């Protein structure tokens, strides 16, 4: 099995990110670049991770009119990212445009298309927050609804919380890849994560990829922390 650990590079600067990339590339499956790092240092971080030989998950959660999202996905594909995120609540036309753009741009470059991942309901939103914006107030129902919309629109993957994996696995086609943050071991600080599973439990429940930030990056020895998590999956 390929290495399912995606390290979240939630650091503000290029140097701090590159130090982690250098130490962790041999023992992890990919690196996640999110809004803070990308807005701080720009596409250079993606080029540097790719030059180090590791796959990149660009987590910018695109949500806009279909043409704008398609152009952003094309630009990310040209940057050679392997995974990227869009908000499923952007609707079917936006989701289809994102997926089409990933395939068409990759085909022009002679590369595999990046995996376009749908984000359903942010884990920071509860039923009151959903009600406030005029959505189905039952979080589980809204997750299921957006997951189905994303898959019907052609997306091949979703981001989901650990506690959503099992329900989504029951309802979705087997080929859909599930990417899960909120991973904590028994000795890790939970930080601000409220609903967690450990790495082994998340994979057993049906996750394909685990997004892990602080348990690795804030450890005294990040490489040893990543190796321990990998061993727990063996
Ligand atoms: O440090 P930690 O392991 O909590 O990092 C998890 C990463 O996954 C962070 O980059 C966080 O933004 C992201 N994430 C999350 N929960 C979500 C979606 C993304 O923790 N629902």
Mind explaining what this structure looks like?
The model has no long low-confidence stretch (mean pLDDT 96). The chain has helices spanning 14-24, 35-41, 44-51, 66-78, 92-109, 127-132, 139-152, 165-171, 199-205, 214-217, 222-232; strands at residues 5-8, 30-34, 56-62, 83-87, 115-119, 157-159, 177-180, 209-212. An eight-stranded parallel beta barrel has the order 1-2-3-4-5-6-7-8, surrounded by seven helices. Strand 6, helix 8 and strand 7 form a beta-alpha-beta unit. The chain has a single domain (5-232), classed as Alpha-Beta Barrel (TIM Barrel), CATH 3.20.20.70. Helix 1 runs parallel beside helix 3 (44-51) and helix 4 (66-78) packs parallel to helix 5 (92-109). The chain is globular. It is α/β, with parallel strands linked by helices. The N and C termini lie close together (10 Å). The chain is built from eleven helices and eight strands. The protein binds cytidine-5'-monophosphate (C5P). Cytidine-5'-monophosphate is lined by residues 8, 10, 34, 122-123, 159, 161, 181-182, 191, 193, 211-215.
Rounded to an integer in angstroms, the radius of gyration calculated over CA atoms is 17 Å
Residue runs with pLDDT of under 50 for 5 or more positions = none
Query: Count the strands?
Result: 8
Assembly category: single chain
Second-tier CATH architecture: Alpha-Beta Barrel
CATH topology-level name: TIM Barrel
Q: Major β-sheet, in short?
A: 8 strands, parallel, barrel
Q: What is the name of the CATH superfamily?
A: Aldolase class I
| Beta-strand content estimate | 15-25%
Bound molecules: cytidine-5'-monophosphate
* Global morphology: globular
Question: Helicity range of the residues?
Answer: 40-55%
Report the span from N to C terminus. Answer: 10 Å
């Amino acid at each position: 099995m390929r290495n399912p650990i995606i390290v979240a590079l939630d650091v503000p600067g290029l140097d701090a990110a590159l130090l982690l990339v250098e130490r962790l590339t041999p023992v992890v499956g990919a690196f996640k670049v999110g809004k803070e790092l990308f807005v701080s240092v720009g596409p250079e971080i993606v080029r540097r991770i790719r030059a180090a030989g590791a796959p990149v998950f660009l987590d910018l959660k695109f949500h806009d009119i279909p043409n704008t999202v398609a152009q952003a996905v094309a630009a990310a594909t040209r940057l050679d990212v392997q995974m990227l995120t869009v908000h499923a609540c952007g609707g079917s036309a936006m989701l289809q445009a994102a997926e089409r753009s990933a395939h068409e741009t990759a085909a022009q470059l002679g590369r595999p298309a990046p995996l376009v991942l749908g984000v359903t309901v942010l884990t920071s939103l509860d039923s009151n927050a959903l009600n406030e914006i005029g959505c189905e107030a039952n979080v589980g129902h809204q997750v299921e609804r957006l997951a189905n919309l994303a898959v019907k629109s052609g997306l091949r993957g979703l981001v989901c919380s650990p506690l959503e994996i099992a329900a989504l696995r029951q309802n979705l086609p087997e080929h859909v890849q599930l990417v899960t943050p909120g991973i904590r071991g028994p000795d890790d600080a939970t930080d601000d994560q409220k609903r967690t599973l450990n790495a082994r439990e998340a994979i057993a429940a049906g996750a394909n990829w685990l997004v892990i930030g602080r348990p690795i990056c804030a450890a005294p020895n990040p490489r040893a922390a990543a190796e321990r998590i990998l061993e727990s999956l063996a």
